[in-house]
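FORM 12-B: Structure-to-Sequence Request
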């Protein structure tokens, strides 16, 4: 074979690869590394069985669905949040739909903002199961309010709950993982921990802070390759997050969750989270377009990202001010894609 022919073949292969990647990207609902892991990587069914998994925010939304999918994998579960009756409901459903027994699920009430209680909570888990293989930092709240209309108490609450609460619990659990030289710390961050959007300045700040903290922590744990620190960054997912979002006042929540149909199904988001855990991925992005495309733009072409975000953001603020669902500026695109 001549050199010329070989070069042409190589160029053709490179072009084909580019086209395949582009097509994969157009249909993606997660970053391409995650989707590769879903196709070729390790299965949660092989990797996560028999683990002790502590999930915060397990009384609703993503944490609740996580409990259901994890229970089917045969793990031992610790379910934490503030509302015990909701946790008991989740536990009952886990027991009904899996082979787990009563002794395999511990309901452990926990307020993430009550950092004084985190040490006792950690000890209670260790007393029950002897170890913590995976800590899923999932509990949190969001925000829907313009900065100028938002009291400082709201910013304080978002940082105390989403950031400091998560850091505090992680600091309690980490020594036991270091002792065993293994464990996974999985934090449900958000694409708003990477990109930014109006109406969520305090939420964005708390999630950006979390990403910085865990990325830095990972570098400190480089001598412990068995301890995996993962950031999970979802876009819009069906849950109660909008209904529970703080408004300008710390005592008031949005109350109405608005449209959910355009958001990713909670079950799909959680399946991708499990794939990430099984494959020890450091950071994953879980979202459909156009939010996923926006994340790639923010990462690789920030100037374009600012231009598009400002355009979409303007509409988002207009919708919010006129009492329409703030996200309806882009949810029509997603709806059209689905129909
Ligand atoms: N859904 C989305 O579109 C989306 C997108 C990106 C990221 N996320 C992230 O996903 C995580 C889960 O949210 P979700 O969407 O499932 O919302 P959700 O349905 O509102 O669930 C939030 C969970 O957090 C718990 N929580 C709230 N305040 C708490 C506190 N002080 N102490 C302990 N637990 C507390 C809630 O339980 P109690 O009220 O019983 O305490 C509930 O179980 C959050 O970190 C959120 O930022 C969600």
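FORM 12-B RESPONSE
SEQUENCE OUT:
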């Amino acid at each position: 074979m001549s050199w010329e022919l070989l070069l042409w073949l190589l160029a053709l292969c490179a072009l084909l690869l580019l086209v395949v990647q582009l097509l994969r990207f157009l249909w993606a609902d997660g970053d391409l590394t995650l989707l590769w892991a879903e196709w070729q990587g390790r299965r949660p069914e092989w990797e996560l069985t028999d683990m002790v998994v502590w999930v915060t925010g397990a009384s609703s939304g993503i944490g609740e669905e996580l409990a259901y999918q994890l229970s089917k994998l045969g793990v031992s579960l610790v379910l934490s949040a503030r509302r015990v009756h909701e946790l008991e409901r989740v536990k009952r459903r886990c027991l009904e739909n899996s082979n787990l027994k009563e002794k395999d699920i511990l309901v452990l009430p926990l307020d993430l903002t009550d950092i004084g209680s985190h040490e006792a909570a950690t000890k209670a888990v260790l007393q029950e199961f002897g170890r913590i293989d995976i800590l899923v930092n999932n509990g949190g709240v969001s925000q829907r309010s313009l900065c100028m209309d938002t009291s400082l108490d709201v910013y304080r609450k978002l940082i105390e709950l989403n950031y400091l609460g998560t850091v505090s619990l992680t600091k309690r659990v980490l020594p036991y993982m270091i002792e065993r030289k293994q464990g996974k710390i999985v934090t449900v961050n958000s694409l708003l921990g990477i990109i930014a959007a109006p109406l969520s300045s305090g939420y964005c700040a708390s999630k950006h802070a979390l990403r910085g903290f865990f990325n830095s922590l990972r570098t400190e744990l480089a001598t412990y390759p068995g301890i995996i620190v993962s950031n999970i960054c979802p876009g819009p997912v069906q849950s109660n997050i909008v209904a529970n979002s703080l408004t300008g006042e710390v005592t008031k929540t949005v109350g109405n969750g608005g449209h959910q149909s355009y958001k990713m199904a909670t079950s799909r988001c959680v399946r991708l989270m499990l794939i990430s855990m099984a494959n020890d991925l450091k950071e994953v992005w879980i979202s459909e377009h156009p939010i996923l495309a926006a994340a790639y733009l923010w990462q690789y072409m920030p100037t374009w990202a600012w231009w598009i975000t400002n355009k979409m953001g303007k509409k988002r603020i207009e919708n919010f001010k006129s009492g329409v669902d703030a996200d309806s500026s882009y949810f029509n695109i997603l709806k059209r894609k689905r129909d």
